[in-house]
Write a structure and sequence with these properties.
alpha/beta; Rossmann fold; six-stranded parallel beta sheet; two-stranded parallel ribbon; 9 helices; 12 strands; globular
Length: about 290
């Protein structure tokens, strides 16, 4: 009977991660999935969210909704804080009131980026741009409104869907003979399909352990190394040159080092996280 299925609400349904959850719908037939974009359910309005939850029996909510335009956030601060902070807090609060398990996605950018080893969940946060500040405020509001929430920080997210670094590089490599890519910013790529699958494993095992976690693919690299791997895997003849951050100025500051330590995630949820290059190969094969 379909009534025995648990219902999972996914917000930010048209983003990279939200779209990856759509791909998993057939693999997890034991669940009803509800997908909402911002136009369909404004999570910024607490009353609208509460009304929806009162009419629909939802067991799990995964908040993939986010304002992710890092540079635009510098001039669109109010919008970034509305979506990344206030809306996340609303959702967490309503989930708490209705006994709905809540998983919220955050970012490596909450850290200052001056570290020399992968950041742990207990390390001090210190955002250096508006986007990061809005995401950290979202974490705080979620934690304050819902003691049972799982907050997952991730980094350098890419997918075969949406706009991302991998797809941009493939396009530029097809159009140009040479490109320059920043070589002095280090981090960990995350294949959105891997993160979506990991979250579904947590749900499927009913292994909800509240707290903050880090999830990214294994291995620490620079954007230049990432681009070089994309070139090699795709067989492009484009020449990729390393450049310094100062040679590629952007409105928002970027952390120089934002690698994440995923030990707590793996140990708590007993999930093996793939190496970044293996996942990159999978994504490029799809593209």
């Amino acid at each position: 009977m379909s009534d025995s299925k648990k219902t999972i609400l996914v917000t930010g349904a048209n983003g990279q991660l939200g779209t990856e959850f759509r791909q998993l719908e057939n693999i997890y037939p034991g669940y009803n999935f509800l997908f909402f974009s911002r136009d369909e359910l404004s999570i910024s309005e607490e009353d609208a969210v509460a009304k929806y939850f009162s009419f629909n029996k939802i067991e799990i909510c995964i908040n993939c909704a986010a304002y992710t335009a890092v540079d635009k956030a510098e001039t669109e601060k109010n919008t970034a804080f509305e979506i990344n902070a206030a809306a996340a807090g609303n959702l967490a609060k309503v989930c708490n009131e209705y006994g709905v398990k809540f998983i919220h996605i955050s970012t490596d950018y909450v850290f200052p980026g001056n570290g020399e080893r992968p950041y742990r969940e207990t390390d001090d946060t210190h955002p250096i741009n508006v986007y990061a500040a809005s995401k950290l405020e979202g974490e705080k509001l979620v934690a304050a409104a819902n003691a049972h929430a799982i907050i997952i920080r991730t980094s350098w997210v890419y997918s075969s869907f949406g706009k991302n670094f991998v797809k941009t590089m493939l396009r530029l490599m097809a159009e140009k003979e040479t490109i320059g890519v920043v070589s002095d910013q280090m981090g960990c790529p995350t294949y959105a399909a891997d993160l979506a699958e990991a979250i579904m494993q947590i749900i499927d095992k009913n292994n909800f352990v509240a707290g903050v976690y880090h999830y990214c693919n294994q291995g620490v690299i620079s954007w230049f190394e990432f681009a070089t791997a994309i070139k090699n895997i795709s067989g492009s003849k484009c020449l990729v040159n390393p450049i310094a951050t100062q040679d590629y100025p952007t409105p928002a500051m970027r952390p120089h080092y934002s690698a994440l330590d995923t030990t707590k995630f793996s140990d708590t949820f007993h999930i093996v996280i793939p190496a970044w290059e293996d996942s990159l190969r999978k994504c490029i094969a799809l593209l």
